[in-house]
Design brief:
Belongs to the methylthiotransferase family. MiaB subfamily. The chain has 3 domains: about 200 residues, Rossmann fold, CATH 3.40.50.12160; about 260 residues, tm_1862 like domain (pyruvate-formate lyase- activating enzyme), CATH 3.80.30; about 80 residues, Nucleic acid-binding proteins (OB fold (Dihydrolipoamide Acetyltransferase, E2P)). It is globular and about 65 Å long. About 30% of the residues lie in helices and about 20% in strands. The protein has 18 helices and 23 strands. Strands 2, 3, 4, 5, 6, 7 and 8 form a 7-stranded mixed sheet that branches. A 5-stranded mixed barrel has the order 19-20-21-23-22. The chain has a 4-stranded mixed sheet with strand order 1-18-17-16. It is α/β, with parallel strands linked by helices. The longest helix has 24 residues. Bound molecules: S-adenosyl-L-homocysteine, iron/sulfur cluster and FE3-S4 cluster. S-adenosyl-L-homocysteine binds next to strand 17.
Length: about 550
């Protein structure tokens, strides 16, 4: 865990934490506090960001309700989740599979018969955390608990995992969750280990209804595609998640419709490469996302290493259709690739009130030669042109990004190009990492991990400070504006305050009051609840939080009219 913390920084951190970075950069999980029950040491107001804005989670423990259905049922499963939101949603699928197999979800590890760690392999530190966790889980083995390592680290290491830790019973990759009951059956039948790490070309779990464990009833994740074909040279994801494949548009629409009926007010469409979505079983009826030659439209100046395939229903059309389901439901998406932001997608973000004006545009670096070594398919100039176009079309958009410091061969000069990119763009959120070499990747085979660890960390700190200066400016510029805020819940600092988010994904804290009028229904003195939209006048900004005064309850339609 410590290794992971030494190597990356989630730039949602508050300043006190940043100020420690020189000596000890650490990944804190702001934005994770909905998940991080045990592993976040403090709960400051600054960290209190709802689940849907978190991107890469340091360690999450889903602690679902212990929904025992009958007294006799005694098989309990406890799942701990690490990694990105895809893993969070995968855990919801795992819980669903296990529930159907007769297991209860428990939030108490002492009651569990089965403990699953849903793991991440993105950096060395992410895996070290799992090794540490496995060694302190050994005591549970004494009472016969079965331990399963699932997800990306399981996929990466396969049987090697069992060689290193003989207490692990099950190893299952991201495409074998349907098989978990059978794998457990083999162990219960006396087999020593059970492994399924077969990657699938078409598994999307489209027919499995996720058990929404961590949800506040306001926001939910909907996975729309899995895998990645991009093969960025540093990245393990294509090896742990396999080839890109998308769910059918109908299964996604059905899931979103159900979430709307259940009262959810915000969904985040998920995918390792979310905007490469294509449903090939459907033909586009609108042409959105397609060029005249029926090829997918890309952002100007961007290229891809794989051959573009004609036709299908593309991401822009999917977002359009999903946003039609419930005009009061906010739509977000992550994690996109900058190459797949065609103009019609940007127009949709601009024109549709419920498609949120907050875009993640992961740059990774600001230097052309380094971007080339990373195999990202764009230059600094084309990236800046895209940002320019986005900001021109959608002036109040907020932008976030990912950056890697200390990639193979990175010089001081190259690093300074990342700094100037940060200064130009002024992101409101960023996920900042020190490069961690991953076996099997193109960089591992062809390049040298030649930047000293101390240099990586120094540059990471420089990137972090630069990001932070610009971010503070962006937040301060919201003071004096009136924002439509969706309430997530009570503030952790005070029961007298609410916390919610603006359309462009900024956290807002404001006092609970009982004298507001609902301007959409004209009902006076309404009592506010999570999932309500309120207009908030922003009075102050501190770190990555805005503070304001609620002026009325409303809905999206009334607000934008
Ligand atoms: N599909 C997403 C990213 C998924 S991984 C995208 O393309 O944006 C999340 C982030 O982890 C990446 O954006 C990158 O910044 C970081 N990352 C990936 N591999 C890494 C490595 N080997 N070392 C350090 N950071 C890495
Ligand atoms: Fe990794 Fe690149 Fe795919 Fe993102 S787009 S998951 S960084 S290979
Ligand atoms: Fe980690 Fe796998 Fe997500 S490697 S970042 S859990 S796709």
């Amino acid at each position: 865990m410590l290794t992971q913390r030494k190597n990356c920084i989630q730039a949602f951190c508050n300043f006190r934490k940043y100020s420690k970075l020189a000596s000890k950069p650490w990944l804190n999980g702001p934005g994770l506090s909905d998940f991080l029950k045990k592993s976040v040491p403090t709960q400051t107001v600054e960290e209190e960001v709802p689940s849907s804005v978190s991107h890469y989670l340091d360690a999450q423990e889903h602690q679902p309700e212990n929904n025992l259905e009958s007294e006799e049922q005694t098989k309990n499963v406890f799942v701990e989740t690490y990694g990105c939101q895809m893993n969070v949603n995968d855990t919801e699928i795992i819980q669903s599979v296990m529930k159907n197999a007769g297991y209860n979800n428990t939030n108490n590890i002492d009651e569990a018969n089965v403990v699953f760690l849903n793991t991440c392999a993105i950096r060395e530190g992410a895996e070290q955390k799992i090794w540490d966790r496995l060694s302190n889980l050994r005591h549970t083995k004494k009472r016969g608990v079965k331990i399963g390592v699932l997800g990306c680290m399981a996929e990466r290491l396969k049987e090697k995992l069992l060689e290193r830790d003989r207490y692990v019973d099950i190893v299952a990759g991201p495409d074998s969750y349907r098989d978990l009951p059978r794998l457990l059956g083999e162990i219960e039948g006396g087999q020593q280990h059970a492994v399924n790490v077969i990657l699938s070309a078409d598994e999307t779990y489209a027919d499995i209804a996720p058990v929404r464990l961590s949800s506040n009833g306001v926001s939910a994740y909907v996975t729309i595609m899995r895998g990645c074909d991009n093969m960025c040279s540093y990245c393990i994801v294509p090896f742990t998640r396999g080839r890109e494949r998308s769910r059918s548009v109908h299964s996604i629409e059905d899931e979103v419709r159900l979430l709307s009926e259940q009262g959810y007010k915000e969904i985040t469409l998920l995918g390792q490469n979310v905007n490469s979505y294509v449903d090939r079983s459907e033909e586009s009826s609108t042409g959105l996302g397609l060029s005249d030659e029926n090829l997918p439209k890309m952002s100007d100046g961007f290229k891809t290493i794989y051959k573009l395939k004609k036709g299908g229903l593309r991401f822009t059309e999917l977002v359009e259709r999903v946003s039609n389901i419930d005009p009061e439901m906010r739509i977000r998406f992550t994690s996109p690739h900058p190459k797949d932001f065609p103009d019609d997608l940007l127009d949709l973000v601009k024109d549709r009130h419920n498609v949120c004006r907050s875009l993640h545009v992961p740059a990774q670096h600001g230097n052309d030669a380094c971007l080339e070594r990373m195999r990202r398919g764009y230059t600094k100039e084309s990236y800046l042109e895209l940002v320019d176009k986005i900001r021109k079309k959608i002036p109040d958009v907020s932008l976030s990004s990912d950056f890697i410091s200390g990639f193979c061969g990175e010089t001081e000069l190259e690093h300074s190009d990342t700094i100037s990119l940060l200064q130009k763009v002024k992101f409101e959120h960023a996920f900042l990492f020190a490069y961690s070499m991953r076996e099997k990747t193109n960089a591992h085979r062809k390049l040298k991990d030649d930047v000293e660890e101390s240099v990586k960390l120094r540059r990471l700190q420089h990137v972090t400070q630069t990001f932070r200066e610009q971010m503070l400016e962006r937040y301060a510029s919201e003071v004096g504006t009136t924002q439509l805020v969706l309430i997530d819940g009570k503030s952790k600092r005070s029961k007298e305050q609410w916390v919610g988010r603006t359309d462009n994904n900024k956290k807002v804290i404001f006092d609970d009051v009982d004298h507001l009028t609902d301007v959409s229904t004209h009902v006076p003195n309404v009592k506010l609840r999570p999932g309500d939209y309120v207009t908030v006048k922003i009075n102050d900004s501190k770190a990555q939080t805005l503070f304001g005064t609620a002026t009325n309850r409303t809905n999206m339609k009334t607000f934008y009219n």
